[in-house]
Amino acid sequence: MAAEKYPSRRKARKHAVEVVYAALVRDDDPVVLFGATAREAGWRDHPWHPFAQELVIGVADHDHELDAVIDGASDKWRISRMSRTDLAILRVATFELLHKDDVPAAVAISEAAHIAEELSAEGSPKFVQGVLSKIASKPDTDAAVDDELAER
Q1: How far apart are CA 133 and CA 126, in angstroms?
Q2: In the chain, N or C: fewer CB atoms in 10 Å?
């Protein structure tokens, strides 16, 4: 068997981003879309499947919170102006930053930038990295989320 191009968690992140992106484009439920895609593509047999599923479910369960945090950290770029690819990457990585204590912030940011380099436009890795670094550097992210949600 040939060596895999990506480590297992990177593959999970990439597939989670692809599903979140497709759900954005289709205005569909990412969890339902993930389930259908996993069945059709045979993802359930891969070791990265549970982590990808956890990411997609987490993004779906926390979408308003994630968007509020992303919106607050992105200077001059409201969510409505962001590319859907970048938004999908940011949602997955922001979920990791806020809700996955076993994932170091530097890893979540680096992985997101890598995925942006592969899937998005030329300036996207820098943009994604900047937004996520700002999110990660907030001393009290929970309070920031509450403030952002209150402003909506």
Answers
A1: 10
A2: N
